[in-house]
Design brief:
There is one protein chain. By secondary structure, the protein is α+β, with helices and mostly antiparallel strands. The chain has a single domain, classed as C8orf32 fold (Roll). Helix content is 38%, strand content 18%. The strands form three sheets. A four-stranded antiparallel sheet has the order 5-4-3-8. Helix 3 crosses helix 4 and helix 6 packs across helix 8. The longest helix has 23 residues. The chain is globular, with a radius of gyration of 18 Å.
Amino acid sequence: MKEYLQETALLNFHHPEIQRLIISRQWQDLDAQKQILAIYNFVRDDIQFGFNAEDTTAASEVLSDGYGQCNTKSILFMALLRAVGIPCRLHGFTINKALQSGIMNGDLYQMMPEEISHTWTEVYLANRWYCMEGLILDIPYLSKLQQKFSDIKGQFSGYAVATTDLQNPSVYWLGNNDTYIQKEGIVQDFGIFESPDIFFNQYPQKMDRKSKKLFSELYRHEINKHISDIRSPQQPDKDRL
């Protein structure tokens, strides 16, 4: 089990900012189940949904950014869990890019590969591994999607969601359940990895250097603004009404 507690370049949990966060939140004083719940909720909601410069962003940088997507939130989640002694591992996949329609459109959508690298964290507690994918979208963003598509009561794909029930997705961890929000978009299953470092070394995002540069320097900022507008739509100027 010790391999699931190791620090790595991406899971840099001895970084001062990560250690300060753990101390300020007093996570080290909780029992294991409460530690997992507190860290899960923090990564889901305090780290908003958004796109970092690259998938291989170290945990300390994700924390500094204050936002993340499936892969980078998994990195931060794993680092925080290992920092408090909770074993965890990475499960690697690809997902169909169709579930990103709505936040990725036009030229960007065409540029993206048909299958996008995707990961979730699996957490060990009381002799069981729990799959925790449901932390990708912060609740304010997800709630606005549920309002926007309030007429859809069942399956939904788009806006970074792929679920069988948009209005009641399994994104809350109750201490004895798996959580999911993009699971229905999975195409390939690459299995279990000790760390994100190993996974992304073997299965990097299938984009050429030019596309990666465009995404990092231009497109991701447009996506993040669109996500922010969905989460907190601008109110009309009353003086102009």
